[in-house]
Amino acid sequence: MSSTPQHDVDHTLAYPEPPASPLWHRHGAKARPLTDAQKRRNRELLLLAQRKPRTTAA
Fold it and tell me: Is the pTM for the entire model greater than 0.70?
């Protein structure tokens, strides 16, 4: 057992995490689920974006 105090202790870990911001919570109606057509279009656009070479804006 050492008699020297520990100076490398992170005291921020000793405090509880603050509550989440109320802005992070949704109020009101839930989002509607995507239709099968919307899911298919999203998959097609994702595949196209993954294949297309990336261009830089001028």
Answer: no
Cα dist. 38→8, 12, 14, 50 in Å? 53, 46, 47, 18
3-class SS letters over the chain: CCCCCCCCCCHHHHCCCCCCCHHHCCCCCCCCCCCHHHHHHHHHHHHHHHHCCCCCCC
Residue 42 contacts residue 34 (beta carbons within 8 Å):
yes
Exposed e or buried b for every residue in 8-29, given b needs 16+ CB within 10 A?
eeeeeeeeeeeeeeeeeeeeee
Kindly indicate the confidence band of residue 16, based on its pLDDT and cuts at 50, 70 and 90. Answer: confident
